[in-house]
Amino acid sequence: MIVIIALVIAAGDKNESTTSAPSATPTAKTRQGQKREPAEERTDLISFQLDDRSQAGFSNIWLVWTIKNTSSEKSNYSWDWEAVDVDGTRVDDGSQWETNVQPGQTARGEFPTTLKSAKGIKLNVTSFNRSASY
Cα dihedral angle (15, 18, 23, 29), rounded to 10 degrees? Predict the structure, then answer.
């Protein structure tokens, strides 16, 4: 009985959940000095998707994103992501950063990938962090 309880407690401590990358997410306003929950901070990532710029037989797949700082302080953002094919196999992964985003400011970014095609690929955000920028 003690072993079962210990296993349940140990399994409950892990937070290895992933969320699908947003294509459009509503934003929320916060009052100055109000602490935001991590789930609310995640909504600052308005969109995160693949952009297929391939042409003439050459693969050219990019990540593109939009961040909107809905906090009351200048912020840095970092997130980990994975690209998964239709069979559930991870075919690429990485980390992205957006720094010094002012309150209310929208920042857009892009980054090349090693993907050969965007067809059937799903992006998942595996972790997300917002921190104050000084």
Answer: 0
- Any residues with CB less than 8 A from the CB of 61 and at least 6 apart, and which? 50, 51, 52, 53, 54, 112, 113, 115, 116, 117, 118
Measured from the Cβ of residue 34, the count of other Cβ atoms closer than 10 Å reads: 10
Which amino acid is present at 87? D
CA distance 46 to 66: 5
For the stretch 79-118, pLDDT in tens is 999 999 999 999 999 999 999 999 999 999 999 999 999 9
* Angle at CA of residue 45, ends 40 and 47, nearest 5°: 135
Full-model pTM: 0.71
State the Cα–Cα distance between residues 114 and 96, nearest whole angstrom. Answer: 15
